[in-house]
């Protein structure tokens, strides 16, 4: 197993990984410190003025220094909405992946260790779900919820609904990966030794097998955070994501899309750039983790 010192050395030697890490760290810090650093609170109606709507960035004619990246149709500073929206997108991405891991790792562990008809049943369910589009499942689920409970309740629970729907839709990726790792681990001597001393199957799975299957899970989780953020952005663009009062990056892009051809390009452009940087940095780090933690690739390094 790679030591922490070796892991750090490999990371610092890879300029792409270092660059992606710096960008991701900056975006996370920006989102976490938004209440302190943001010029205004875009969720506070008392700080908004409709007369400030569609104001260009400060360096363009008509712009003001208090709105460095301009304003949106509601008079909110684009910089402030990006800072708060990045936090919401990250929260949804991390929350959805936590749900995916909880369901997928648990079912994959059980399927791989128990085997037999239970393994076949769980994997067939996973195959069926993988054959369906995540976006399609999310659209149907969110549309039904919105129609059944009304837009007001949907707005209040949108973030929890997005986390739950995206999480439930993507658990098979973790389940199949963990199952494959467990099938290899359960035949090893330490598992036989644990059975011999009388440990229960649950204890063996939790204390001995699970820790040895977490390396591929870590790689998948990094990439799946990016996938969840992209899915949420697509749903928000379709009007089924976060409400306008609590916008994510996807909702911000959608809110300004209709104003692009009228000249207010900054409303969509800057949130789109931040979203691209966020997704790109996560994917690059996920690729680096995959290559670094793969023993076969490490031998050739």
UniProtKB/TrEMBL annotation:
It is found in: Cell membrane. The keyword Glycosyltransferase does not apply. It is a multi-pass membrane protein. It holds the Pfam family OppC_N. The chain crosses the membrane at residues 88-113, 125-147, 153-171, 214-244, 264-289. Residues 86-286 form the ABC transmembrane type-1 domain. Keywords: Cell membrane, Membrane, Transmembrane, Transmembrane helix, Transport. InterPro entries: BP-dependent_transpt_permease, MetI-like, MetI-like_sf, OppC_N, TAT_signal. Belongs to the binding-protein-dependent transport system permease family. This is ABC transporter permease.
